[in-house]
Amino acid sequence: MTSTQCPLVRDIEHNYGSIAPISGICRDDESKPNDSSRSIVPDIIANNAGILFIITSQFFFAAMGISVKLLNSLEPPVHALQVIVVRMGITFICCVIYMVITRVPDPIVGPRGVRTLLVIRGITGFFGLCGLYWSLQYLSVADATVLTDLTPLTTAVAGCLILKESYSMKQTVAAVCSLIGVVLIARPPFLFGSPGVNPQANHVVPEATPEQRLLAVGACMISVLGSTGAYTSIRAIGKRAHSMHIMTFFSLWSTIIAALGMIVFKIPVVYPNTWTWALVLFMVGINGFVAQALLTLGLQREALSLCVIGVYVQVLFAVVLERLFFGVTPSLLSVLGAAIIISAAIYVVLSKQKQQDD
Q: Where is the signal peptide (predicted)?
């Protein structure tokens, strides 16, 4: 639980996260239902809404990754910065339209008191995204996945140090087990040796020099720091801003910086030449928008230490979707890693439910 002593999370006038009372828990002025009428499943869902939002968001993040893979298999290829511009441009438009229709106050500038945090979220989120794309130039997908999956651990530590959130030993063990599951699924060459065939890659990663690989690892660390800053700022904002405010700042800053990057580095704009090409590019934006919305809702409602497990579930979704779209059969190590991730997630949810029941 967030400490009220932290200056980053002080209350202000608006609260955009008001929700109905948890099922089975009534206020003093309401009559309590009979014990026989209570349902355990709705209680678990209501009490774990934050982590369930995050787990669901990881499915759409995995679907976005599949869309990017499909896009890379089409001609002509699209530069990563252009993908960011399209994805974040669609997200920005959807956010503004939603806030205008629903009459959310301050749709562009955000509510007073959290505007600095919103800017921090936007800028750090861009570097988290850009660092990952940059690292993939010289690192394999498996290496980059393992390195960037340090983000949930660093985010949980940041939440403990900066936001004064609790971080139990059970959550630490579950997070480490989930990271082991990610490693078993990704199987980075620097731990498992160079495989003959990498079933998760659609292209051969060019041989990188030690200097290039070192730069790529540094880019991964930039991605980890950027994502940590983004997640921590979202948690610090909490319910003082609408989830669409948070997404608007992220998408706006990402679009602006990526567009400036295309201008500075003289990257040509690639236009779609087929309906399939345009549809896949559009799906990248839509999947990214839904994923970011669910992730923001989850981070606003759940402690950062509990968000660790939900983020790791993305690897499981990626394995399943790759099987469906590309016919990639997961290995025994991948199945074992997926089982570890699922077990850790269930353990965290049930432990939290038991603590609340006690």
A: none
